[in-house]
Design goal:
The chain has 273 residues and is of the alpha/beta class. Helices cover 47% and strands 14% of the residues. It contains 9 helices and 9 strands. The strands form 2 sheets. It has a 7-stranded mixed beta sheet, sandwiched between helices.
Length: 273
């Protein structure tokens, strides 16, 4: 009789536990379905920009959620996000990594988080206002109308870059020309970092195989979408260089992009991509 009683106590507990988990999942899914997608913003020392960029996203007519992936910024970026979470509960999310590990790994971390939380549209956006938050809605509309990957493009309709020196514009522009020649992708802005993915794209790409961290990461994601025959559409935007904070551009990032494009093409040729 005692064992019989224990069995029913355990079974009752299990039922309640499972029911609680189902209700929690349903509420989470319902909350996510109210948003059109999640905007992933990787940060490292963006205290001067983070409050303003988050506020700008939430001020849009379209409802978006925001995920900040912070690389343990010593300037208190993550603390600022935590303070804002009180205002934007269940809309603003934060993932803090232990160290600065590169743009690519930050986005991959964010992609996995977004997929596990049920979002259908997943965005990449910089924290420094070089990408205008108002253009999120343009990218979303293009994806809702059939694109699998929408790219906020600086070069699809002329050259639309503000506050960059000519040398930087030429470097970026001819980097895209180089990528087109090597890979065969008909994309005007191959290094663009302002994008909207349908979740199917990120589900198809093996995110654990993504190796690059800077411009090469941006190229790699487009190339993997391209070789998987996803519909890629460029959306003209105006890119404005940051006015606050420090750029993360370095010689190492440029070298990685130059070599990385060749490696991507070789891996495709030898079927090891």
């Amino acid at each position: 009789m005692q064992n019989y009683k224990k069995y029913f106590q355990y079974d009752y507990y299990k039922i309640i536990k499972n029911l609680t988990e189902e209700i929690t999942y349903f509420c989470s899914k319902l909350n996510h379905n109210m948003a059109k997608g999640v905007v992933i913003i990787p940060t490292y020392n963006e205290i001067e920009n983070i409050e303003a960029i988050i506020t700008a996203v939430f001020a849009l007519p379209t409802s978006f959620h925001v995920l900040v992936v912070d690389d343990n910024s010593p300037d208190g970026t993550a603390d600022q996000v935590r303070a804002m979470q009180l205002q934007f509960e269940n809309q603003l999310f934060l993932e803090v990594r232990t160290k600065k590990a590169g743009l690519g790994t930050a986005y991959v971390h964010g992609f996995k988080w977004a997929l596990s939380h049920g979002y259908d549209y997943i965005f990449e956006m910089d924290a420094d206002f070089s990408h205008n938050p108002n253009d999120l809605e343009k990218l979303l509309v293009v994806c809702e109308n059939g694109a699998d990957l929408a790219i906020g493009s600086r070069y699809s309709n002329g050259v639309n870059v503000v506050n960059w020196p000519l040398s930087r514009v030429l470097l970026s522009y001819f980097a895209s020309v180089y990528v087109r020649i090597i890979t065969g992708m008909k994309i005007a802005d191959a290094t663009a970092g302002f994008k909207c993915y349908r979740r199917a794209v990120l589900e198809k790409i093996n995110l654990d195989k993504i190796k690059f961290v800077g411009y090469a990461f941006q190229i790699e994601m487009k190339y993997r979408a391209f070789v998987n025959k996803f519909n890629i559409v460029e959306v003209p935007i105006i890119f404005t260089d940051r006015t606050k904070g420090q750029s993360k551009m370095s010689g190492g990032i440029i070298r990685e992009a130059v070599v990385g494009v060749l490696l991507l093409r070789l891996r495709k040729i030898f079927n090891t991509l």
